[in-house]
Amino acid sequence: MSSPRSTMSDSIREMYQFSVVDYCMFGGMLILSAACGIYYGFFKRSTNTSSSTSECEDEQDHLPEAGVPAKKPTNTFGSATIDEYLLGSRKLKAFPVAMSLLAGYISGVTILGTPAEIYNFGTQYWLIAVPILLMGVAVCTVYLPVFCSLKLNSSYEYLELRFNPYVRSMASVMFVINQMLFLPMVIYVPALAFNQVTGFNIYVIGAIVCVVCIFYTLLGGIKAVVFTDAWQVVVMFISVVVVVIIGTIALGGPGVIWDRAVEGGRIDFFNFNPSMYERQTFWAVLIGGFFYWTSYNAVNQTMVQRYMSLPNLKTAKFSIYMFVVGTAIFVSVCCYTGLLLYGKYYDCDPATVELVTTSDQLFPHYVMESVGNLRGMPGLFIAGVFGAALSSLSVILNTTSGVLLEDILKGLFRVTPSSLVANIVVRGSVVVLGLAAMGCLFIVDKLDGILIVSATLAAIGNGTTGGIFTLGMLVPWSNTKGALAGGIAGALLSGWISLGSQFASAAGEVVPHKLPVSVDGCIEELITNTTIVNPIYPDESGVFPLYRLSYHWITPIGVTTVVLVGSIVSFLTGPRDLRYIDPELISPVVHRFLPRESFSYFGTANKGPTCVSEEMQTQTNIPVDSSAPYGTAANGQNGRVKARN
C-alpha cells in the first residue's frame, strides 16, 4: 500500500500533467536543435578550405598559383574543414558567442542547484555575482591577450610552447577526464526535472537528449553549437523569469518573499566567519568563487575555443564582458528563485514530508504545483532546462573531440593525420563520448547535491590547469620542472581534499548544516505517520581537517599549490633566463618587468613567422619602427615580428 505522501505526490502530478501544448514546446526545442545541425552542416558550410589560422600570414600563402584553380572542398559531410568545424574559421560574431558562453556555463546544474542552495543555506552564495564580474576583468587583462596573439587551436598548445609536451599532455588528459566525469551529470539534470513533472523514465529521456545533441554537434560543429546555444539561452532565461514573475505575484510580491526569508534566517550576505570549514561565508564565496570562475573561464578549452572563434582580441573582450554581465544577472535570478521557493514552502518543506527525494527536485516540484495549471508553463520550464543541458553537452562534445585530436593524437602521440582521418577522429569522438555519457548516467542517479558534486569534480581539474597557466604567464622564470612538479602537487592535493571530503560525506562524518525548515503549515495528510525531528549533526572535530573544508576552497588551494611549488622548484633547478624568453608567452601585465633584450625574441616560440597584434603591442609597449616594413620591432629579427592590420 502506498504511503500518504506518495499518494499526494502522485496526485499533484496527475492534477498538473503535461498537456499537448507542453509536449509541443518540449518537442519543438529538440527539433529546432537538430535543425541547426542540419543547417550549418549542409546549407551554411564555408566554401573556403583555407584554415585562416592567422590573420597575419602573408597574403600570398592563401592565393592560388597562377593558372591553377583554387581547390574546392571535397568533404560533403558537415563542415568543409576541421578549422571550420572546431573554430568556425575564426569568423563568428561577438553576441552569439557571448550567448553560447552563457548557455554553455549556465547548465541545468545552475537552474536546479542554485535555488536549492539558497533555500537550504541562505543568500550568502548570491555574492558569487561579484567574483563573476571580477573574473571577466582578469580574463581579458591577464590571459586572453596571450591566446589571441598566439592564435592557437587549443589552449593546451600554449603549455608546450611555454614548457614542453609533457606539461601539455598532463593538462589535456586531465581536461578530458574531467569532462567525461561531468558529461553524465549534464544529462541527468534535465532528465531529473522531466521525471519530476511527467514521471517519464530518467534513462530513456537521457538517451533522447544525448542522441539529439550528438546529431547536431556531429553535423554542424562549433557554428551549430554557438547559434543553437544563442536561442537556447533565450528560452532558458524566459522559462525561469516567467515562472519567477508568476510565482512572485501569486505570493503577494517581493516584500512578502523577503519578509518570510528574513524570518526564516535565509538573508545573510555578510557572514565574515573566518572558518574555512563553514560552507558559505563572505570570504569563501568571494575568494573561492573568483579562483574557480577565473581558472575555468581563463584557460579551460571549452571557453578558449569559443574565444578563438572570434576574429580579434577586441571582439573577444566585448564578447566576454557581455557573457559575465549576463551570467551575473542569470545567477542572481536563480538565487532569487531560491528565496521564492522558501517563500512558498516556508511552513511546509517538501523534502521533510518526502514530496521530493533530493533538494534538486524542489524547483521542478514548485513549477508543477504552482504554475502547472497554466497550459504550456511546465513545457516552457522543461524546454529551458533541457536547452541549458543541451548547450553544455554540445560544447563539451565539440571541445573534447578537438582536444583529443589536437592535444592527444597530435600532441601526445605525435601523429599527423590526414584531413579525412582528422574528420573521422573528431566526429567519432563526439559519438563515443555521447554514448559513454549515456552509459554513466546510472552513476549520477546515486548522487545527491548536484551543485557541490559538479563543483568539486571541476575544481580538481580547474585548480591544477589554472595554476599551470598562471605559473606560465605570470611567473616568467618558471621552468618545465617547476610546472610538472607544481601540476602534480596541485592535482594530488586538490584531488585528495575533494575525494576525502566525498568519502567523509558519504560516511556521514561531515554533514552540511542546513538552515531550519518547518512543516507547521502542511495539511494533515502529508504529516500523518511522519515523525518530525530536528536534524542531529555529527561531531566533526575528529574528522581530518582538510576533509571538512568548504568546497569553495578546493580551487584556490589547487592554484596556489601549483604556483608556489612550481616557483620554488624552478628556482632550485635553475630559473629561466629572462633575457631569452619570448614575451609573447608572458601576460602583458608582466611585460614591464621583463628585460628589454627579451623583446628581440618576440614571436620566436611559435613555429613559423609570428606577428604582434595591435592590441598586444599597445599593452606590451614594444618599440616599433614605423618606417620599417610591416612595423618591424626596433630590435626585432629581420622583420619576423610584424604588426597586424
UniProtKB/TrEMBL annotation:
Gene Ontology CC entries for this record: plasma membrane
Pfam families from the UniProt entry: SSF
Transmembrane segments: 20-42, 94-113, 125-150, 171-194, 200-219, 231-251, 281-299, 320-342, 380-399, 420-444, 450-475, 482-499, 551-572
Molecular function GO terms recorded: symporter activity
Broad class of where this protein is predominantly found: membrane
Signal peptide, first to last residue: none
Topology class, membrane: Multi-pass membrane protein
Family of the protein in this entry: Belongs to the sodium:solute symporter (SSF) (TC 2.A.21) family.
Record's protein name: Sodium-coupled monocarboxylate transporter 1
Organism of provenance: Anopheles arabiensis
